[in-house]
Design goal:
CATH topology: Peroxidase, domain 1
Protein name: Type I-E CRISPR-associated protein Cse2/CasB
Oligomer: single chain
Number of strands: 0
Amino acid sequence: MTTPTSSAAETGTGERTEERVRNLTRALISEKQRGFLADRPSAVAALARLRRGAGKQIAQVPDLWGLVDTGPLAEVPEGRRRPTEAELTRAEDAVHVAVTLWALHQQSRGTAMHRLGSRTEPRGLGTAARALMRPGDIDEPVRKRFVRAGTAPTLSVLAQRLREIVLLLRGADIPLDYGLLAEQLYLWQSPGGQETVRRAWGRSFHSYRPAGATGDDTTGSGSAAPDDSTDTPDKDAS
């Protein structure tokens, strides 16, 4: 298994930091998504606030501080190593970017735009970008946006470029696994992580097959799967 060195350290629950980022993001979004789809006023209002942070880092939107509870990332039971300040900062930024992008994606949609990926139904970024295109055809403007995201020099720029893609996904009602995206955003910030994540996104883009296609190998929007994986354990492909 090959992952960036800094992300391999274990934190409070025995999970690696990237696993905690993924699981916390999924839990946060699932709760907010249920409330929004049930038309609860508090959830609708929270989504409206969150989407104002889409494409920005957490330090740029102090109005959202406290709305996305990243406290569990720093919780460490006795005998476990506390994450370093650098790990916590990367983790908090990854969760914030993913949750706010989901809020933008979910806006005005009557179905869930965050859905877990699996080997049979991958829902990673590369798969979603390819699903925007007609079978057998490469939409050049979409491809260019996807490439631009992959070559972003900083997390701030990456968040802005992902925002462009999310708007396209929203228009096409194509869901995304935002827990997986958050995990990859965390790894992207780690030493050597950009290459790892770019490779995963590119592999999932090229391995995409439309539903019902013959000979498809649409494995892995979950983090153990080949196409959108970041070389993490099999239990995460769910």
